[in-house]
Structures are given as structure tokens and as C-alpha cells.
Design goal:
This protein is of the alpha+beta class. The protein has eleven helices and 15 strands. The strands form three sheets. It has a seven-stranded mixed sheet with strand order 10-9-13-12-11-14-15, covered by helices on one side. Strands 4-1-7-8 form a four-stranded mixed sheet.
Amino acid sequence: MKNYKIIIFSIFLITACSKKHPSDYLTLSGKIENNKDSLIRIVGREGLVKEIKFNKDGSFKDTLKVPQSAIYSFTTESNKNAPIFLKNGFDITIKGDYSDFFETFKFSGEGSQNSNFIIAQIKKSRDLGNPQDILNLEKTAFIKKLDELKSTYDSILNSYQNLDSTLYANIKVQNKQLIKYFEETYSKNQVFGQGKPSPKFENYIDFKGGSKSLDSFKGKYVYIDVWATWCGPCIQQIPFLKEMKKLYKDKNIVFVGISSDESTRSGGSWESAEKKWRDFVKENSLGDVQLWAGKDFSFQEAYQINGIPRFILIDPKGNIVDADAPRPSDPILKELLDSVL
């Protein structure tokens, strides 16, 4: 879900560099009905490109230069905005209504087909609904749905003529990424989906003494933090994690930190790696259950963890609630825990 949203909205950030057009400027004109603002801001990845003033009747016209052919944001003072593809040499006219800004935008003139295509692509993405509904389909229905998505997005792309060549290529890649996301996530859900038995860890060293296994916590929800002392983003989560521990200290949940500190980052010895972990836990008063995996990375490998921090929520029966749970800094985590505790 989270990665899906990133894929869908990455369309705003695609840049399509192309050969320099003979003209060294472009023209924007048009009219926004029921306009309530005084100016337009054209904003790119590098920031503000130009401000254009509205006339009293909502009309506008100006010329500008863009540093590269790309998708920019057409934004008003009150943050009404829509994407627009700009390239020096274009002559684009825009019409729309302030009350329903994005939905009513129509582009005409030279180069306008690129922006009309982008609007159509985004609207179709909105029509997908909840991606989880697709991921919950049975395999045959899932495959059929993906075939429909491929056909729909190819149809949109091919229905617009004379698109900028690099924009066209980038959208083709993006569409493939969307399908790939669904395929990979669906495959993972067959193993790591909600309610599936969690992979286990065995005999990880406990900071307080002895060792612990996942089965040591049966009967409780287990919120696992896979981290390391050298990981900056992991350390950034510590204050938020401490707050969560305080908030749910009387609930049926245990917070378990699993350090993946290993020898190559600790002077080449496993003893120094363990000492580094112990010193960090003590100095930062991490509390609760703090475990060190040592040489055993089978749990991390089973969950296909290739980046940390990684958070996992497991139910009292040892089944997965969320194999890629929200971080402590994410308000969604509290919503998730409140829904199960």
C-alpha cells in the first residue's frame, strides 16, 4: 500500500529531458472561471520558475523559460494545483474552473496533449480504488484484474498522439513498475500476508541475560524493531519508540528490539559487535526486550529484510498482523495498535 502510493504519485516528479527546442521560451495563457486568487506559480523540482498574474476576469497570459522539459505544478496562492508538462517552444492554453480545479482542467495548443494525457493518467489511477482490494483477490481474479490494468493504461497512453518521446518512455516504465508492484506484493502476501504464521527466531541473546525466541512471547502481541547501532534512521525512531512503550505499557504487547549488528561493522570481531550493541542499549536506556541476533540472520532472511529499520507486528498466536508495520513515528501505528489491543 505504502509503496503503491509512492508509485502512483511519482508521476508528478517524472522529468523528461529532451533535445533543445529551437524556441527558447514558451507561452501560457487561459482563463480560470470563478477565480479567487491573484497569481499563478509555476513550480518545478528545483523550486519556483515564475509567477504569473491573473487579470480580474480570471484570464492570464505570459511567457517563461523552463530549465528542462518536465512535469511542473500549476499552483495558485490557495494551493489549488494541477500538473502541467512544459517545454520551451510550447504555446499552451488552459481552461478550468476554480471550484473544481483539477477535474475541470483542459489544455489546448502546441504541446497540450502531454498535459491532457497526464491528467487522464492520474484520474484513471484514482479509479483504482483501494489497492488492497486487488491484492485480496483470488489468484485467477487477480491475474485477470492485472491484465485489465495493463490494457487500460496502454490504451490511455496510445490514445494520445505526438507525446514527448521521453515522457512516453518514462510512463511506459512507470506502468510496468505499477504492475510489478502488484505482482511482487501479491506474491509476498501469500507468505507474509495477515494471518500467516510468522517465521521464527531462536535463542537470540537477551541483553538482560539468557536468550529469547519468538515463542517466548506467545500470548502477547509482539512489535519487533529490526535495527542496528550504525543505522541513523533506526536511531531517529528511538524517542518515538519510547513513547509508544509508555503508551502501551499496560497492554498485552511486548516491544522487542533485534539488533543486526555484525562483525564487519565492528572492527571485524563478533565480540566487539556484541559489546557495541550492549553499550548502546545501556547508554540509551532502550529498555523492554533487547535482543542481538549474532551470526544468525535466518529471521531477517525469512522476512526478506534488505533495509532497516524494519518493524513487524505479530499476534498472540504467532501469526503476522503486519510484516512491514508502520514506524513508531507514523501516527498510523497507533491506529493499528488501538485496533488490535
